[in-house]
């Protein structure tokens, strides 16, 4: 990140997990943080003692009017937004067959369309200044899919594709895009923050239901440290060449490399059939 005095980080979803820890680290560095949550009472403690460096705002990323108001207030308070962190999101456990449309659409509204709403609200200012960072929280689940979280994966695969295109559109304008892809971390993702539709179909008990129970049992015991993960994110933003993707944690790293190897093996194995689809030379 370009060396400017008192950079301004606008962070969504600060009530728990990565958003909360990142806001705390930003303030500890003497920088400015716009700390947002649907219920601002849940994040007021983060701002205590930091004076004008911290701005707490109510923000539901599915509410465009509230987004516009929050972005305006942030710019009035600090004059700019240097880094947008799209962290708000949650999981949904169910089999694909048993997924409830209302819950599926609600998850897309937050995990994907909420992210789009934030980007569209903040980008005009970044374009004008010809600088900025947009951090989009994906997941190792944006690269690799498992049973029981198919709709969550769908939202994160969508974030991956959007972010790749965005990076090519805004890169020439001096704006960088960072996809954060954490593995299992000790956040509330598999706990209170997750929605569930109980498995009723016997055929899915050994796959979908088993993973749902394993994920629930492991909540709070994950290998990933949210504070260390947030420190890595800050280092990536400060780097001269911010990467498009930042895997967080050994489990995620191993899963991503396995996916790459599997994809390559599949491509090579079916190369002749793939090439046969072209018109002959």
Description:
- The termini are far apart.
- The radius of gyration is 20 Å and the shape is globular.
- The chain is an alpha/beta fold and 281 residues long.
- The longest helix is centred in the middle third of the chain and has 29 residues.
- Helix content is 47%, strand content 15%.
- The protein has one domain: 3-Layer(aba) Sandwich (Rossmann fold), CATH 3.40.50.720.
- It has 9 helices and 9 strands.
- The strands form 2 sheets. A 7-stranded parallel beta sheet has the order 3-2-1-4-6-7-9, sandwiched between helices.
- The model has no long low-confidence stretch (mean pLDDT 94).
- Strand 1, helix 1 and strand 2 form a beta-alpha-beta unit.
DSSP strand tally:
9
Overall mean pLDDT score? Answer: 94
Low-confidence stretches: none
Shape: globular
Q: Report the CATH topology name.
A: Rossmann fold
CATH A-level architecture: 3-Layer(aba) Sandwich
Number of helices: 9
CATH class: Alpha Beta
Q: Which percent band covers the strand fraction?
A: 5-15%
Number of domains: 1
SSE class: alpha/beta
Describe the structure concisely.
This protein has helices spanning 17-28, 44-47, 64-78, 101-129, 150-170, 205-218, 226-238, 250-269, 271-275, and strands spanning 8-11, 32-37, 54-58, 83-86, 92-93, 132-137, 175-182, 195-196, 245-248. The protein is α/β, with parallel strands linked by helices and 281 residues long. It has a single domain (8-273), classed as 3-Layer(aba) Sandwich (Rossmann fold), CATH 3.40.50.720.
